[in-house]
Automatic annotation (TrEMBL), chain A:
<dbReference type="InterPro" id="IPR050622">
    <property type="entry name" value="CPA3_antiporter_subunitB"/>
</dbReference>
<keyword id="KW-0472">Membrane</keyword>
<keyword id="KW-0812">Transmembrane</keyword>
<feature type="transmembrane region" description="Helical">
    <location>
        <begin position="171"/>
        <end position="189"/>
    </location>
</feature>
<dbReference type="InterPro" id="IPR007182">
    <property type="entry name" value="MnhB"/>
</dbReference>
<dbReference type="Pfam" id="PF20501">
    <property type="entry name" value="MbhE"/>
</dbReference>
<feature type="transmembrane region" description="Helical">
    <location>
        <begin position="69"/>
        <end position="86"/>
    </location>
</feature>
<feature type="domain" description="MrpA C-terminal/MbhE">
    <location>
        <begin position="10"/>
        <end position="93"/>
    </location>
</feature>
<dbReference type="GO" id="GO:0005886">
    <property type="term" value="C:plasma membrane"/>
</dbReference>
TrEMBL record, chain C:
<dbReference type="Pfam" id="PF00420">
    <property type="entry name" value="Oxidored_q2"/>
</dbReference>
<comment type="similarity">
    <text>Belongs to the CPA3 antiporters (TC 2.A.63) subunit C family.</text>
</comment>
<protein>
    <submittedName>
        <fullName>Cation:proton antiporter subunit C</fullName>
    </submittedName>
</protein>
<keyword id="KW-0812">Transmembrane</keyword>
<dbReference type="InterPro" id="IPR039428">
    <property type="entry name" value="NUOK/Mnh_C1-like"/>
</dbReference>
<keyword id="KW-1003">Cell membrane</keyword>
<keyword id="KW-0472">Membrane</keyword>
<dbReference type="GO" id="GO:0005886">
    <property type="term" value="C:plasma membrane"/>
</dbReference>
<feature type="transmembrane region" description="Helical">
    <location>
        <begin position="74"/>
        <end position="94"/>
    </location>
</feature>
Amino acid sequence: MHKYLKKTLVISVFILTAIALYENFLLVPEYTGLRTGVSDYIISSGLSDTGSLNLITAVLYDYRAFDSLGESTVIFGAVSGIVLILSRKMLPVSSRGLSFIVKRTFGLVTPFIALFSLYVITHGHLSPGGGFQGGVILAVISIIFSIVYGSAFDYRRYSPQVKTAMETMGAFTFLGLGVVGILMEGFFLKNLGFLTARTGTLISAGSIPYVNFGVGIKVGAGLAIIFYSMIQKTFKEDF
Amino acid sequence: MMETRIILLIIVPLGTAFIIPFIDLINAKLRRFFVLLGISIQIFNLTSIVVQYFDQIRDGSLFLQYHLGGWQPPFGINLVMDNLSFLFIAIVTLSLLFIIIYSIGYVGHHEGKFYVLYFIIIAASNGAMLTGDLFNMYVFIELLTIASGALIAFQRSHPGSEAAIKYLFYNIIAGSLIFFGVLLTYFNLGTLTMADVANNFAALESGIQLFITAIFLTALLIKMGVFPFLFWLPKSYDSSPAPVTAVLSGVLSKIYLYLFIRLIWTVIGFETIVALNLNILLIDIALFSSFLGHVFALQANNIKRLLGYSSIGHIGMIFAVIMLNTEAGFYGGILHIIAHMFMKAGLFVACGYLLQYTVSNHYRDFKGVGLRDKPVFIAFIILLLSMIGMPPLLGFASKWFILMAFLEAQSYFGAFIVIFGSLTAVIYYLRYIAKGFEEVRLSEDDLKMEVFNQPLLSVLYREKIVTFITYAYTAVIIIFGFGFRFLNIPLRMSIESIMNVERYIELVLGG
Amino acid sequence: MRNNFIFIILFMLGLYALIMKTNLIKNVIGLNIMEASIFFWVIAFSDVGGEVAIHKMGEEFSKFNDPVPQALTLTGIVIGASTAALLLTLIIELNQFTDTIDRDEIEGLNN
């Protein structure tokens, strides 16, 4: 009885909240942001300002690059926290993996996954994609290694130390390009003009491809570390 | 005025945070050198800003800007340092410096990860206070949430993980609400720069104004731990290690108060709040929260939990006195923010040292704590007296100004809460002081327990560092208690920069 | 209009899972549904019937959707994923001490 009462009470509160939200949404006018303000400027002159065909990438890594730096720092902080919290555990070493057919198949497929992630990272300024998306695909490789070939294989190929070094390197690529922006162009994270080539080519859009590359490596290594920490196991005789 | 050094205030700690895991791979002994290097550069940087712009800080015309990526404000992100943010950055940096020196002495295991997360907190707090962009503010708030949430569970104990889970649930909801509010603002005004939003916010329909304001207020009330959403706070203060509690209570809640002032006065505008009839409601909520905090503190049987509840009481009081929107109110409020920052951080720091040999933070285990280390306990008592509001200390000055502000605004309930808070504080602190001087006889079983055999701080110099920081906090409280007039000019100037929104908008959008 | 309805339904579902369910993992899922509903609403609201804001080589400039909310949402998604990962990690850690992930059976979460 008590349980049902509580449930009814909560649901009625929910319904009231929903009605209040609905009433408030009625007040929000139809979207008019395109005609005024920031977006109009970005759509009309984003290509000539940054040289990036993908305007979302232009916003992410040029107009609001500082947000992306904060965002990659969020991943960095989360990785540090997760490694810290789960540091008492150890990796269960297994070299058995799955069956021969699966191993062979993934042996053929994995290079193409790596190639695809590299494509997504490097074409961030030309087509949909970018560092974060490509980095997630990159992290998949490490996960495949652990599941298909056993964690010992992954540990041998890309040990956690290598991953940490890669993550730090990616973060420093981003930060370093920002500092180079101060030295050469006068502003932190300003797009490096001397790197710009003909629009639409692979290495155009100033420093955006390099920033994308750094973010991609960093996200890939970070997510691989998170996966690694989460599959760890506690052994009874810890410490 | 364009100034490159204010971006260095953010990227130097960020770079230190990035480099520490790499240093750990090479040689862990180098780590402390890089930590000290990072904070020295930070302090040098801030000092050079103070020296160069000393005259402008004194006459209140300080206004430093930085356009990230060289984009003019409505299109890109801009950083702004006016007198208000300068005052907050100065005190927050000082407090964070004390706490990091303390943690060099306190943190034994997994030092590397601790410093990474701690430097992320330094960078994010500076960023959140400097930024002039709404979405950038959201990013830095989330950074603070992640880093502090991981630090709460730093000891990897049972209560620590529970507290961190609770903390993260509440704060992630607050974070998504801030995201929602920022995007609603963007959809209605087409811009994210605070000055640009402030320029156009009053022209919006009042229903939308209420919607956006309510979302931001809910999020900030959760973050600050004011009445309807205060239930995460005592648990996380109780279960985290001492330096982290000092950061949570001494720094993070003050940053959220700063962001509250920024959002309400600069971005939304106090006239809008009055027009929406929210100001009286908010004062009442805050005073009720303060009342609840003090009442809960009376029944708390755990020293750290007690201090957490007392934090709720003080933050509610500051919140209410700021919402009066008078000059006296701001004066008392900001002075009490400074006072509370140093008192609470000092208390938690001293607690971390005093409670190192006890089994738990419980009242019965507090027995005899004062006899074991008398000088630190005396410093602890001085800080407690300052919390109560004893005359020569800083807590007295700030509480006096708050009381005067409430009386001037004829808010007698507020004045009652200030006096009620002091009176209850006398009751609940004296209990602990008396318990601390009680003679304790350890039985054989007690001595066999691990806590008594293995002190956490076995190295001698570490003990010296830890006690030194406690004395430093006490010294700050006593010095500023006698000379709180020194803070007169920065306080007056920061109040001027809160009130003078037109100047902020003009300087950001004009150049 | 339809977007608002779907947003409210999703948001309330997430809130329901967050408040009423006692399983901590389900609570995290509820939290993520709440965040996802906000992201969904932002993207749907900023859609004015144009194309994705990517120029194509050799084609003329056509009507684009606003790129800024999409970029902001990307940031929001990454932050949401990081916080969820940290939360799940903490639940794994807590499970070792309590051997349960039921919120009502863990005393420390209720005081």
